[in-house]
Write a structure and sequence with these properties.
Number of helices: 17
Distance between the termini: 78 Å
Structural class: mainly beta
Strand content: 35-45%
Strand order of the largest sheet: 27-28-29-35-32-33-31
Length: 1165
């Protein structure tokens, strides 16, 4: 039989795609068996009639027909046709026709009777009369004898939805919905990264609307402000909302310099009072900034024209960057009441007058009554600080600042102090009492709900930090108490006296690492971690706290001098839970090209593991490391009803609620729910922990509590996780038996006698009947089609009273009558996660590639390092796919691209990593034999006769791991002019440009410039790499190229980085001598004869000639007025000095006046 289609005028889908359609009417065509094939008239084509979103497609499939049937009592028109095929066309032309009856027998005139019907058989089955020779043919989307079974196109893959869309099954059809962060019709979905992009594509112009943007590959819902609301036409992306009554975004708060979000839901609510900071702060580039303030419900806006990669790039480094709006424009944010002093008017980003108490603003203007900017007293802006109101200063957007000063001038009440802490001072508080007031001298902890947190002992010392840091280091005695917010029971007390060793670092594996505000927060972190006994506090861009489980006494050789770190260790401490460690990522010093090196080890990840190490362990809160993250759980130890051992909690379900109903998304996703509930035992706090998807199991303990009576059963099941048994919706049986399941309820349990389908995803044949994620369903009939009773966890559907956990029973043949028992349910597992060995691997990356082979595991991860570590932790894994679909997914594979080349495909949303098979990628030279390894030495080259030594390397692009990030650079190997070895590029400077002029901010900040220039060797591409601030060295190679002639000199200097030698502006001398520096230029070099001040930040006394690296000289016998220089990062005088080369003016020059612009190169080793 042939399969042709007839397209109705309501169709929207081109029949050429034949995989998706929408139906305005349900259609079933009744036809005589004598008709063998339905033909589409040539005039009727899909492209002629289809209109988007208004379509139906009639497909006549004789192989799916009813036999001997005819629909009666719904005929709206009877027509005689000369050809049976015309009956279909007549139905197509009749608006109300949805089915036809066709009598194939010819009348005496040679015609056929065609009956047009206005209903289908659905709902009218009783009116389908038997009629010899008839059949009914199902339309697409339905199956079954009566065309009543819906086909799920989504499950069967019979759809054409985009990879970035969800497929949603409907009755007889389906629809496609783009995933969050993508827009389109579902068949084509594209990512939107900014509100401007959304606006430019003509989406909902001139109205505000919540749009999900793709920010840093993550979906972020924000309220896009579209059209002109005060900042000009276009699409405006929200970044921050700041409540000037709070100190959340005070000038000195870390939110201005870190990558931390604050209340992201506030980004969806428009111009209200919800403070927020979104990832758009550091991830969204722009050319205009809209600034608004709301005062007494009056909104005012101004616009700054500024091109930047992000707002973070303008603010985080603390450097001042000016704007030119003017005094009056900034005042327009406040309105007629605005007040500023008349002088200074320093405006822009990080505007401040110097000093800790002067006015300052992250974005805004500061001003002074005097004719300088030394002590500003007024401001308008965002992220403000300093005087006036030094301790509680206003922080923008909704801030009504009367910046007229707090000394001279009038005072107008315009602020309310609304912070959690307001440092008014002890004397101010005493004024409430009067002259009789009395307070002790120490602590003075004030604000709302003041608590005693710590006591300080005598010594305070300072760590060298960047400007604006308030870091102070102390010997400190700290006591920590953990409380439950519900009943305030104290669950843990730990205290310790910490001693500080300044400028020291203990180089041992860490059990935790955090970005902190000060040393006290770091010490508190240590006390909160059961394994921590010492910390390193280091300054690297931000303040980093490293928690250590060792001290300097047990690792004296690793206790070393470090100029950017202080070390603290506990002198006196209470007992610490034993046996806790954490996985550590350890990049190796030498990493072959294009590779990521991962070293993985594991600590306890289950309660069973802790119990097995110490069978005397008692039940209580323990910190596990689940998915490489610390997780506090209540471990149930011993036999409480499920057998001996250590039992790890997974879920707690309140049967009176629908949180974990059968259809709740928590059963199929990777979301946690109320982590604190995992610490409280068999109580009524619902909870879902990450152990649901991260902890393997061999036994599952199921418990129910009814009227304070606890009962348990045990399921023996080996699986990677509970998620792997449930999330895919597939039924997996168990064999406990109905009586065993009934023991969970007790004597009142009731089930029907038949079906008794038990296990995971146990459900009836009908979707509207009883079902349970874990449990049993039963029926009074001898099948599973219409089950009416259940016992289990994650229950749903029928009986309607089934919410999430317990026993529900209706209808006939019940053990103990009808029941609706709501239970408190508990799910725990028992598995051993100890890893007995350590595995290492070199991973090579293939970008935008995907290996389509069966997976041995799948996880949601934070980054590629976590994914590769997951692979090393799985004994069968040798490669991974890292794909982005809403979140970052890591797929573990037991095969690689070499064994499955045909399945290795292009994919725009995935990268592929594989453990390097060095036999396939032999790095050995001169026919040496390769030997692979999974130790700290990834391979060995066995040299043939006549050769010796390791593999000799050649210059070329290599992927380094710099600050834990991959960085591709051109490594210069061997002796090209600076001596043998491997040389790491840092900067390339074009002396004809001012990019790296002495005053350029690149010398003092942590910004990169043109990373691609780091891969191209000694050419003319300027570049600054992260190696400028992240790479330590003992030698610096300096090179200049003039007229294609390269010359080099070497400085022997030990330092943590080039940044550490230059950024603070301090002069540091070298001793090459003037002739040594002149070698860079060649025979044309020219310098004056005196002064000859050389090194880093070499500047003459009058701030004339100056260089970041180089030499300045003078014709007089002092350094007062230097007029000549050779170096890198040049500036000032002579005026021709741009950034690199030799500049010489005035008298007593070696070779007369010079202005030689060179291409400069800086490398380190």
């Amino acid at each position: 039989m042939c399969n042709k289609r007839l397209i109705a005028p309501f169709s929207a889908q081109d029949t050429r795609e034949q995989t998706a359609f929408c139906v305005m009417h349900s259609v079933s065509i009744c036809l005589r068996l004598l008709l063998l094939c339905f033909l589409i008239p040539s005039a009727v084509r899909s492209q002629d009639f289809c209109v988007a979103d208004q379509c139906r497609i009639l497909e006549f499939s004789p192989e799916k027909a009813f036999e001997e049937k005819r629909l009666i009592q719904h005929t709206i028109r009877i027509v005689e046709v000369a050809d049976p095929r015309f009956c279909e066309n007549l139905c197509y032309m009749e608006p109300d026709c949805v089915s036809i009856n066709l009598d194939k027998r010819e009348d005496r005139h040679g015609n056929y009777k065609c009956e047009l019907n206005n209903v289908t058989h659905e709902g009218h089955e009783h009116q389908l009369e038997d009629r010899e020779g008839y059949r009914c043919i199902c339309r697409p989307g339905f199956n079954g004898q009566r065309c009543s079974e819906d086909i799920d196109e989504c499950v069967r893959g019979l759809h054409n939805c985009s990879l970035n869309a969800y497929c949603n099954n409907t009755k007889g059809s389906y629809n496609c919905t783009c995933k969050p962060g993508f827009t389109g019709n579902g068949r084509e979905c594209e990512g939107i990264t900014s509100c401007k992009e959304f606006y430019d594509k003509g989406k909902k112009a001139n109205m505000s609307i919540v749009v999900t943007l793709l920010i840093d590959s993550q979906p972020v819902p924000v309220l896009c402000h579209l059209g002109n609301f005060g900042c000009g036409d276009g699409g405006w992306t929200p970044v921050m909302k700041i409540d000037g009554r709070n100190t959340t975004f005070h000038y000195n708060k870390p939110y201005w310099s870190n990558y931390g979000e604050f209340n992201p839901t506030g980004g969806q609510t428009g111009f209200d009072e919800q403070e927020t900071k979104l990832p758009t702060y550091w991830n969204t580039s722009f050319s205009q900034i809209c600034l608004g303030m709301k005062i007494d419900r009056q909104l005012r806006f101004i616009v700054i024209k500024k091109q930047a990669d992000s707002l973070f790039s303008l603010i985080a480094d603390g450097k001042y960057r000016n704007t030119s709006l003017g005094h009056d424009t900034w005042k327009s944010l406040i309105g007629s009441d605005a007040s500023l002093e008349r002088n200074c008017t320093k405006e822009g980003f990080n505007a401040n007058c110097g000093g800790t108490i002067s006015s300052k603003a992250r974005i805004g203007i500061v001003s002074n009554i005097k004719n300088n900017c030394s002590t500003c007293n007024s401001r308008v802006g965002f992220g403000t600080g300093g005087w006036p109101f030094y301790s509680i200063s206003c922080v923008s957007v909704l801030c009504h600042m009367r910046d007229f000063g707090c000394g001279e001038g009038g005072w107008t009440p315009v602020m309310k102090i609304d912070g959690r802490k307001c440092s008014l001072g002890r004397d101010t508080w005493k004024m409430l009492i009067g002259p009789q007031a009395s307070l002790q001298l120490k602590f003075n902890n004030e604000g709302f709900n003041p608590e005693l947190v710590l006591s300080e002992t005598t010594r305070t010392s300072a760590l060298p930090v960047t400007q604006g840091s308030d870091l102070a280091l102390r010997d400190t005695l700290i006591t920590r108490t953990q409380t439950n917010t519900a009943d305030h029971r104290v669950t843990d007390v730990r205290q310790g006296l910490f001693s500080v060793d300044e400028f020291r670092n203990l180089n041992v594996p860490r059990v935790g690492i955090f970005s902190v505000h000060d040393d006290l927060e770091c010490i508190m972190r240590c006390l909160q971690h059961p394994s921590c006994i010492s910390v390193n506090l280091a300054l690297e861009i931000r303040l980093r706290c490293e928690l250590l489980s060792f001290d300097k006494y047990s690792n004296s050789r690793e206790f070393k001098q470090n100029e950017s770190s202080h070390h603290y260790h506990i002198v006196i401490s209470m007992s610490v839970p034993k046996g806790i460690t954490i996985a550590v990522l350890m990049p190796f010093a030498k990493i072959p090209k294009g590779l990521i090196t991962v070293h993985a080890s594991r600590g306890p990840t289950s309660c069973k593991e802790i119990y097995d190490k110490d069978t005397s362990s008692i039940s209580g809160v323990v910190t596990l490391f689940v998915d490489s993250n610390p997780l506090s759980v209540f471990c149930h130890m011993g036999n409480f009803g499920c057998g001996d051992g250590g039992w790890t909690p997974v879920m707690k379900i309140d049967g009176r609620k629908t949180t974990f109903h059968y259809d709740a998304h928590y059963w199929i996703n990777y979301d946690e729910f109320n982590l604190l509930g995992g610490e409280t035992g068999f109580d009524e706090q619902e909870s879902k922990l990450s152990t649901f998807w991260n902890t393997s199991l061999s036994r599952i303990c199921l418990g129910m509590k009814i009227n304070q009576q606890l009962r348990f059963i045990v399921v023996q099941k080996l699986a990677d996780s509970l998620h792997s048994l449930i999330a895919d919706g597939q039924y997996r049986n168990t064999s406990l038996g109905r009586d065993e399941w009934k023991t969970l309820i007790g004597s009142n349990a009731s089930l029907q006698p038949n079906c008794n389908k038990e296990g995971f995803n146990a459900f009836s044949g009908r979707s509207d009947r009883s079902k349970a994620r874990i449990g049993i369903v039963s029926n009074d009939q001898n099948d599973c089609d219409s089950c009416n009773s259940l016992i289990g966890f994650g229950t749903g559907s029928y009986p309607k009273g089934a919410k999430s956990c317990g026993n529900e029973a209706l209808h006939d043949k019940l053990d103990d009558g009808g029941k609706s028992i709501k239970a408190m349910g508990y799910i725990l597992n028992n598995a051993d996660h100890r890893v007995t060995d350590v595995r290492q691997g070199l991973f090579s990356i293939d970008e935008f590639r995907y290996l389509n082979v069966p997976r041995v595991g799948i996880f949601s991860v934070h980054d590629d390092l976590e994914c590769t570590m997951r692979c090393l932790q799985h004994p069968s894994c040798i490669s991974v796919n890292l794909a982005f679909e809403i979140r970052l997914w890591c797929e573990l594979l037991s095969s690689d691209k070499y064994r499955n080349p045909r399945e290795f495909r292009r994919n725009e949303s995935s990268h592929h990593y594989h453990i390097v098979n060095m036999c396939a990628e032999n790095p050995c030279e001169n026919n040496a034999t390769f030997r692979s390894s999974f130790t700290d030495k990834p391979y060995r080259c066995l040299c043939p006769a006549g050769y010796k030594g390791p593999r000799s390397s050649m210059s070329g692009v290599v992927t380094l791991v710099v600050d834990s990030q991959p960085l591709s650079v051109f490594c210069h190997m061997g002796n090209f002019g600076c001596g043998d070895g491997g040389w790491t590029p840092v900067m390339k400077i074009d002396g004809r440009e001012t990019t790296f002029h002495y005053e350029a901010h690149y010398w003092t900040n942590y910004d990169e410039f043109n990373l691609l220039g780091g891969e191209t060797g000694f050419d003319e591409q300027e570049s600054k790499l992260p190696t400028y601030w992240n790479t330590s060295f003992s030698k610096i190679c300096l090179g200049m190229k003039i007229n294609q002639q390269l010359r080099f000199i070497v400085i022997s200097k030990l330092a943590d980085s080039l940044h550490s030698l230059i950024a603070d502006g301090q002069y540091r001398n070298t001793s090459l001598g003037r002739d040594g520096w002149k070698k860079l230029i060649g025979s044309n070099a020219s310098l004056q004869r005196n002064c000859n001040k050389e090194g880093f930040n070499a500047v003459g006394d009058r701030d004339l000639a100056k260089v970041r690296i180089g030499i300045v000289s003078n014709n007089q016998n002092d350094c007062y007025s230097c007029n000549s220089l050779i170096g890198f990062g040049t500036g000032s005088h002579p005026k021709g000095a741009k950034s690199c080369g030799n500049e010489a003016l005035h008298d007593k020059l070696d070779d007369g006046g010079n202005s030689i612009k060179a291409m400069g190169y800086i490398l380190v080793q």
